[in-house]
Write a structure and sequence with these properties.
Elements (H helix, E strand, L loop, with lengths): L1 E8 L2 E8 L1 H16 L14 H31 L9 E6 L6 E8 L13 E8 L2 H13 L3 E4 L11 E9 L9 E8 L21 E7 L13 E15 L5 H6 L5 H33 L8 H11 L5 H6 L1 H24 L6 H14 L4 H10 L1 H23 L1 E8 H29 L30
Parallel strand pairs: 5-11
Antiparallel strand pairs: 1-2, 2-4, 3-4, 6-10, 7-8, 7-10, 9-10
Helix pairs in contact: 1-2, 3-5, 5-12, 6-8, 8-11, 9-10, 9-11, 10-11
């Protein structure tokens, strides 16, 4: 194989590739040997059909398959040997080809630009840690204690009030008739929470131990007996006990009941929990800073074909005249995104960052936990949409790249209070909200629909030349 690089214009290159006649002949002979053992022709034993007969019968189909394979193999090899990473699909132009001929073709390719990633190791960003005041931790522990009250038996003459725990047996009827599941034993209700049936608790206010009380309530939409839905039921209630809440003592025993070693350990755990609530959001701000810094890195030339593809995505769904009007704005945005994606991709490749199937599954599981009750729907979505899995892989890949850049970069470490963290996050949220609103309003004025925002693409560009498929050999 002889490769000559011609017509160098910036990122555009033409590779003239020549495969001599003898090499092509050897490929053809190999293919004939391969099919000889599988072809059945009248008058010939299996595996004994002469090459000339095979050539007459299957010559065109064999040449088509050989040409297809040689073009794929040699074009990929030519790009690899010349260290050319194509931006998109190369164009292939056949010049000379045919049986008993040399093969000559031109591969026109737009190359991905060289990007300098050294500056990423000196990239600066703010890294916040939130110092949680002891009073914040104590406040959170008190809230937990308040939501986990202890109850003690009230005196027999004590009337139940909101917040008390009432234990009761009941038997219910609808229109004087009993129904399936109409009885309850030692049912415990905290008055005021209204967790049983709407309005049920309120009717128990004022009851005492050993009282009997008729309570009326409407059976709900999700009641198992469908013909009783929205019917009024009468509950004959026997009050077993009334208990009053008592303040939970916050001590080592309380901490142990929550899974901590002691109260000191619980305070440390709660402090970490509060910190973690802010950590993810503050980390995202740091990553946004890194992306802004990456945007400042110079890339001499961005491939035009990638810009065109990105502009198409940005203007998707817009009227043609509006897309033309906003073309320059979209081109600038496209260049920024592509440039950022190229830099991140180069960094990922240089540092051999990979995404494993385990990491993809972990990400899917994370989404399942965020959508309780919809697990099957989420799983079906990913099983039926390979593009969604590819998008998820891209997100994980980008996350790993940004995390490594953070590790190698120069963090401006800042310890801030909880109130400072809230202020920083609010300002960032307001800034993004104002930016989105401004964008939305400007689109409304021009009658253009808002294009969905996309992250920088870190998708690796594959180098597969566009070769017309030829018919396969019919094996009879």
């Amino acid at each position: 194989m002889k490769v000559t690089i011609e017509n160098k214009k910036g990122l555009n290159k033409d590779l003239k590739i020549l495969i001599d006649k003898e090499t092509m002949k050897s490929h053809m002979d190999e293919k004939y040997e391969e099919i000889k053992g599988t072809v059945n022709l009248k008058g010939f034993r299996p595996g004994k059909v002469p090459k000339e007969v095979l050539k007459r019968q299957f010559g065109k189909a064999v040449f088509g398959e050989v040409l297809d394979k040689v073009l794929k193999d040699t074009s990929t090899k030519a790009l690899e040997e010349n260290k050319i990473k194509p931006a998109g699909q190369p164009k292939l132009d056949l010049k000379t080809y045919g049986e008993d001929k040399e093969l000559e073709y031109v591969l026109s390719v737009t190359e991905l630009p060289k990007v300098d990633i050294k500056s990423l190791e000196k990239i600066k960003f703010d890294q916040y840690t939130v110092k949680i005041d002891e009073s914040e931790t104590d406040k959170r522990i008190k809230e937990i204690a308040k939501n986990q009250p202890n109850f003690k038996d009230a005196k027999p003459e004590t009337k139940a009030k909101e917040g008390d725990l009432v234990a009761l047996d009941y038997k219910a009827t609808v229109d004087g008739k009993e129904f399936k599941g109409n009885e309850g034993k030692n049912t415990q209700l905290t008055l005021g929470k209204d967790l049983f049936l709407k309005g049920f608790d309120k009717q128990l206010i004022g009851v005492k131990k050993d009282d009997e009380k008729i309570v009326e309530a409407i059976l709900p939409e999700n009641f198992p007996e469908k013909d009783l839905i929205n019917k009024k039921a009468k509950f004959n209630c026997k009050i077993l006990n009334v208990k009053q809440p008592e303040e939970v003592k916050i001590d080592d025993n309380f901490a142990k009941n929550l899974g901590a070693k002691d109260l000191k350990d619980l305070k440390n755990l709660i402090s970490k929990q509060i910190n973690d609530e802010y950590k993810n959001s503050l980390d995202q701000l740091a990553k946004n800073q890194i992306l802004k810094e990456i945007e400042k890195i110079k890339v001499e030339e961005v491939p035009e074909n990638l810009i065109e593809e990105e502009v198409k995505l940005l203007s998707q769904g817009m009227p043609e005249d509006e897309a033309k009007k906003n073309k320059k704005t979209f081109e600038e945005k496209a260049k920024t995104r592509i440039k950022t994606g190229l830099i991140l991709n180069e960094f990922g490749e240089k540092n051999q960052i990979k995404v494993s199937e385990v990491e993809i599954q972990n990400e899917v599981q994370k989404q399942l936990r965020m959508m309780p009750g919809q697990e099957k729907m989420v799983m079906d979505f990913y099983q039926k949409n390979p593009s969604a899995v590819a998008s998820l892989r891209g997100t994980v890949y980008e996350e790993k790249i940004l995390n490594l850049i953070k590790e190698k970069g120069q963090a401006n470490k800042k310890e801030i209070s909880k109130s400072d963290a809230e202020k920083i996050l609010k300002e960032a949220h307001d800034h993004n909200h104002d930016h989105d609103l401004e964008k939305k309003n400007s689109k409304k004025k021009s009658g253009v629909k808002t294009a969905k925002e996309k992250k920088p693409s870190t998708k690796t560009v594959k180098s597969k030349p566009a070769v017309k498929k030829t018919k396969k050999v019919s094996k009879k």
